[in-house]
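Structure (tokenized):
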């Protein structure tokens, strides 16, 4: 059985790792996924000033390092962990990766902004819950 843990590096990410570390058996594959959304002000790395491309590259590198540090924390507990960073629309990408990897459970964090915020803006966890073919574990912000 495998778990897909969708991380956004917010405060709830540490809680997600703690819960997954406790619940997952050592032989269960854990996939840590961070979906990096492209900057809507430009298309690809070719467009925009060098400064913008540099800033985006620095941010991607920082996120990549953060993701691998989180994976290492779970590995230290004896878990098999793969870290993935994929660019795309968040909900769609989480669902696509879940299917591609054969995840049996998706773990997402909730920021607890409330129903009005979710109604107006939408929420990643709500979108994943609505569209997922597999169970979704939502970890609330403490």
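Design, position by position:
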């Amino acid at each position: 059985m495998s778990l897909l843990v969708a991380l956004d590096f917010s405060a709830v990410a540490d809680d997600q790792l703690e819960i997954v570390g406790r619940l997952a058996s050592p032989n269960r594959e854990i996939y840590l996924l961070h979906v990096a959304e492209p900057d809507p002000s430009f298309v690809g790395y070719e467009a925009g000033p060098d400064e913008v491309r540099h800033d985006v590259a620095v941010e991607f590198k920082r996120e990549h390092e953060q993701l691998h540090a989180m994976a290492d924390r779970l590995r230290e507990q004896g878990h098999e962990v793969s870290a993935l960073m994929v660019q795309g629309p968040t909900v769609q990408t989480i669902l696509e990766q879940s299917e591609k990897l054969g995840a049996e459970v998706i773990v997402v964090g909730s920021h607890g902004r409330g129903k009005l915020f979710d109604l107006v803006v939408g929420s990643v966890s709500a979108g994943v819950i609505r569209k997922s073919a597999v169970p979704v574990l939502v970890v609330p912000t403490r």
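Reviewer-requested clarification: Residues 9 and 66 are 8 Å apart (CA to CA). DSSP finds five helices and five strands in the chain.
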